[in-house]
Amino acid sequence: VLSLAWLGPALGDEEEDGEVVAEEEKEKEEDEVLSDEIKEEDNVLVLHEHNFAHALSEHQLLLVEFYAPWCGHCQQLAPAYTQAATELRNESSPARLGKVDATAQTALANEFNITSYPTLKLFRDGNRTHPLPYTGRMDTQGIVRWMQRRAGPSATLLHDTDTTNAFADSQDLVVIGFFKDLKGKAAQVFYEVAAEMVDMPFGVAEAAELFQAYGLSADTVCLFKKFDERQTNFPVDPARGLDTAELTRLLRVHSLRLVMEFNNETSNQIFSAKIPHHMLLFLNKSSSEQLSLQDGFKAAAGTFRGEVRWSHGRDKGGGCEVPHPQGHPSPAQVLFVVVDVNGYGADVLSFFGMTPADAPTLRLVKMENNRKYQMEQDSFSDTAIRTFIQAVLDGKVKPHLLSAEPPEDWDTRPVKVLVGKTFEQVAFDETKNVFVKFYAPWCSHCQAMAPAWEELGERYKDHEDIVIAEMDATANELENITIHGFPTLHYFPAGPGRKMVEYKSARDVETFSKFLENGGMLPVEPPVVSEVRDPPTPGQPPAPAGQGDGSCGM
Question: Taking the complete model, does pTM exceed 0.70, yes or no?
Answer without folding.
Answer: no
